[in-house]
Design a protein that fits this description.
Elements (H helix, E strand, L loop, with lengths): L11 H4 L2 E3 L5 E3 L3 E2 L4 E6 L2 E4 H9 L7 E5 L12 E5 H7 L4 H6 L15 E3 L5 E3 H13 L3 H26 L5
Antiparallel strand pairs: 1-2, 3-4, 4-5, 6-7, 8-9
């Protein structure tokens, strides 16, 4: 359903590009761009993010250093009721798609060690490195040069791979959620 003009402060051509969804989202059907496919609206000789334009027009200014977070997690939505003004960090960490958020909320490393305070250190690029994995990797690198220890390293690596395969099979065989 295409929206009718709800507010005179917003041009009619804006509303012609908005469809109301059953979810309550006001889906932007005009130009989209960026990695998240946000809507763009040309106004005053400039292309503007449609959701920010509507928020500023109907609600008020967005303070410097803050961004609009889509509470509905639907970037083309322009419904001001679905937007909340937050910091960029909070916006990224709320996302279900951003790799930064996915890694931030992980509680275990890829080998299953817990990632709680003290069990990891920060890399030069700001990432988390599991201390237990670091110790194992260092030990394995040193042992690779010692022929007597090389077989033990290979056995541990095979065991790790087998554990990963078992864990993947267990996750894939879980009933849907």
């Amino acid at each position: 359903m295409v929206m009718e003009t709800y507010d005179e402060r917003v041009p009619e051509r804006f509303w012609r590009k908005v469809e109301v969804r059953d979810s309550g989202c006001w889906e932007w059907m005009g130009a989209r761009g960026g990695t998240m496919l946000h809507g763009y609206f040309g106004f005053g000789g400039k292309n503007r993010l449609a959701h920010r334009y509507l928020y500023k027009t109907l609600i008020g200014p967005i303070p410097d250093g803050l961004v609009c977070d889509h509470l509905c997690d639907n970037p083309p939505c322009v419904n001001p009721g679905h937007l909340q003004i937050v910091t960029q960090r909070e916006n990224v960490l709320r996302s279900r798609r951003a790799p930064t958020a996915i890694n931030y909320w992980k509680t275990r490393c890829k080998r299953g060690h817990p990632l709680d305070e003290g069990s990891f250190y920060r890399t030069k690029k700001g990432g988390r490195q599991c201390r237990a994995c670091h110790v194992e990797n260092s030990r394995d690198r040193r042992a690779a040069f010692d022929p007597e220890k090389r077989l033990a390293v290979l056995r541990r690596q095979r065991e790790r791979m087998a554990n990963l395969r078992r864990a993947r099979r267990a996750v894939l065989s879980l009933p849907p959620g």
